[in-house]
Amino acid sequence: MKINRAAIKQNAKGVISSTKPSPILVGLVYLAVTYVLQFLSYTVSGQYQAYMKMMEQMMAGNLDYVPQMPHTNAGGVIISIAIVLMMMMLSVGFTIYCMNICQFRNAGFGNLFDGFAIFFKVLWLTLLMGIFVWLWSLLLIVPGIIAAYRYRMALYIMIDNPQLGALDCIRASSSMMNGHKGELFVLDLSFLGWVLLTAFPFVTIWVTPYTSVTYVNYYLALRDMPRTNFNVKV
Fold first, then answer.
1. Residue 197 sits in which domain range?
2. Any domain includes 232
3. Peptide bond before 21: cis, by omega within 30 degrees of 0?
4. pLDDT tens digits, residue range 112-159?
């Protein structure tokens, strides 16, 4: 049984236009906080200063200038890692917000911080998926890509079933994605044009909630699809 790609994308547009607070506004706050954190990370790590130095030399016509690797102390590295983890949890929080609005639950700006409540579970899930994808990639790049698609629903399953462990979510995702990996790949390709347009910031404000809500819709369609080999209660 295939999922109607056009239907879930159309539903995403309807959800975005009818939900209060607007997913576009919540997404704007999410993006703004993320950009500020990225700037802090680049500053602390020295990447911003190195970039500005390179631009200064290029503007001065010094085309022979060789960019220097930024020097970062241990404290800067720790702060940078902490900022990256914060951005990851904000991303999870925005996904939780999208899950709530797609299921007609109470949702708001506070959802952006809900990811911190499952911080260690998400971190462990992310690490495990990264390890598994890397191990499959040792065979060839294609098995690694297939593995990445196999585990794509794991985070949604964890948000939907917070009582489950990381391995359970990965196994459930593998079961759920059986026969649907190519379908999800085509869905990804359908957003390619939008992704290219995100070079313009105002486009990103629309694309972020649009793609996020669509992927949540895809998960919900998979979740509610009758099957005999997927026994996780959702």
1. 5-223
2. no
3. yes
4. 999 999 999 999 999 999 999 999 999 888 999 999 999 999 999 999
